[in-house]
Amino acid sequence: MATVVFFHAHPDDEALATGGTMALMAEAGHRVILVVATRGEEGEPVEGVLETGEKLEDRRSSEVEKSAEILGVARIEFLGYRDSGMAESDTTSHPNCFWQATKEEAVNRLSNLLKSEEVDLIVVYDPNGGYGHPDHIQVHQVGTQWAQENSVRLRWVTLNRDAIRKVVEQAINEATGAGEELDEDLAKREERSSEESFGMAEKDITHAIDVKTALDRKRAAVAVHASQIAPDSFFVTLGEDQYKKAFGREWFVDPETPRTTEEPLRSDLLLN
User: Fold this and answer.
1) How far is CA 3 from CA 141, 146, 152, 154, 193, in A?
2) To the nearest whole percent, how much of the chain has pLDDT over 70?
3) Please, which residues have CB within 8 angstroms of residue 251's CB and are 6 or more apart in sequence?
4) Phi and psi angles of residue 15, each rounded to the nearest 5 degrees, phi first
5) pLDDT tens, 20-40?
6) Which residue of 38, 155, 203, 270 is most buried, as measured by CB atoms within 10 A?
7) Residues 6 or more apart from 75 whose CB is under 8 A from it?
């Protein structure tokens, strides 16, 4: 059995990006560790969710702990940095935010957290952090450096830009065909997926993990992040068939062993 670290930027990233894979690996008997760089202070809370005087970071910390339990995570840790916010925001200059941390300091923190573990593989984001968020990019850089320094195998979790475009296009066609207004989440996903910096093309992806048998756990883990994901969100309201198409596979890259055009996508995250 392997010990696999999933290194994420904020609470809810783990469920949305890798929840199915984490659940399947835990179910198979692997030791799944979740490291979260920040507590998500700069997220935008769903209106009316927070109690009077409740801090967003406290709520999001509680939510990710519940998510980890649903997904079968053996250990969850926070790296201890502040959420940097989006690239264009002033919060990226906050002295305690993750974006301002030196790589050496952050790598040392990660090493200290994992010094008692015999890690076989670490999962971080692709070089653009999926969609350009500073904290996601920092996770990529810090996690990659840590993997190199500790001779640990590395995977990048990414977004299959080609597959997402197809799913979004189909959802839009169904909505407009029924005379419905576009869901705000769906409209945002259409805009994002049209950008070349969003995710990666399927030809550059090496692993496609079929997580359909774990979708109930993935969906439940996503739903507990209620401070960020409203009950009417695209992420929780899709019908079963659409949900399988949109979230039934999770996508990864082995940067050391690219896939040839003739080779099928690998179905086991531990497989090189």
Assistant:
1) 21, 15, 11, 12, 33
2) 91
3) 157, 158, 159, 160, 163, 199, 200, 205, 207, 208, 209
4) -75, -45
5) 999 999 999 999 999 999 999
6) 38
7) 31, 33, 34
